Amino acid sequence: MDSKNIGVCVGSSSISYYDGIKGENISHHGNPTEILKELIPRFLKDGNVIVTGRKAKKMVRLSQIPEVEATEVAYDVLKDKHGVVDGIVSAGGENFMLYKLNKKGSIAEIYTGNKCASGTGEFFLQQLKRMGVSLDFANSINADEAYELSSRCTVFCKSDCTHALNKCVPKELILNGLGKVMAEKIMELVHKSGVKRIMLVGGTARNKVMIKYLQKKVDLVIPDEALFFEAFGAHIWGKRNGASIFEVPDEIFVESPSSFS
């Protein structure tokens, strides 16, 4: 029986994996090592583990590929199903990034958003918690009207949300406003890069509030693998390169602080 090739991506706010059958995106709450120590020994019993993510080298001693390569490999497999796109937007918990592709489907340029957290996935989840509602609640909103919020910085946006709640503005309108801010952050990257058709991947792909505003602005593709896209790419890379390249050291984990600084 052939070994599985399990792709694992260590992100800024979550860990995702894909084992050839199913994938998952798990929030690590700033402590990725704890999740990795639970997942990786279990995965190694079933096959090979290929890791990607900028922080991964500081955490595990396993076969690794850069996120850029994992992204290119995943897109190479999925482009026949979804058609050609000009760019891939990786929109996660703490940062939005756009990979501009050339005609061969390789990454030609990388555009990143500003470091303000007001338009990120993690900030949206924080505001859900403050309001005492779930993502399912937000995703069920039918209203199109949005309360205007500042996107200049986290402090102003949070202050606007608090002020709106104190004025008894419906939560649905505030959440629409947050989704609109997130969509605008992505559109800044779209305009800067000059792309016309994008593929959206990352944890915010489950945020229907943001997506409804984004779809009005740009030709958008969201693959089924969006929540574990880079892990899917690492899985494909493992299949292509064969089991013979994988060696598992005696000490899998690097002894270092478990949380991101």
Pick out its properties:
2 domains, 39% helix, 18% strand, four-stranded mixed beta sheet, five-stranded mixed beta sheet, 261 residues, single chain, Nucleotidyltransferase, domain 5, 9 strands, alpha/beta
Describe the structure.
The protein has two domains: 4-73 and 229-245, Nucleotidyltransferase, domain 5 (2-Layer Sandwich), CATH 3.30.420.40; 84-226, ATPase, nucleotide binding domain (Nucleotidyltransferase, domain 5, 2-Layer Sandwich), CATH 3.30.420.40. The chain has eight helices and nine strands. 43% of the residues are buried. The chain has 261 residues and is an alpha/beta fold. A hairpin with a 3-residue loop joins strand 1 and strand 2. It is globular, with a radius of gyration of 19 Å. The strands form two sheets. A five-stranded mixed β-sheet has the order 7-6-5-8-9, with helices on both faces. The N and C termini lie far apart (42 Å).
Number of helices: 8
> What would the CATH topology of the largest domain be?
Nucleotidyltransferase, domain 5
Biggest pleated-sheet summary: 5 strands, mixed
Helix content: 25-40%
CATH class of the largest domain: Alpha Beta
DSSP strand content: 15-25%
| Helix/strand order | EEEHEHEEEHHHHEHEH
What is the CATH-assigned architecture of the largest domain?
2-Layer Sandwich
Q: What is the oligomeric state here? A: single chain
- For the largest sheet, list the strands in their spatial order: 7-6-5-8-9
User: Superfamily at the CATH H level of the largest domain?
Assistant: ATPase, nucleotide binding domain
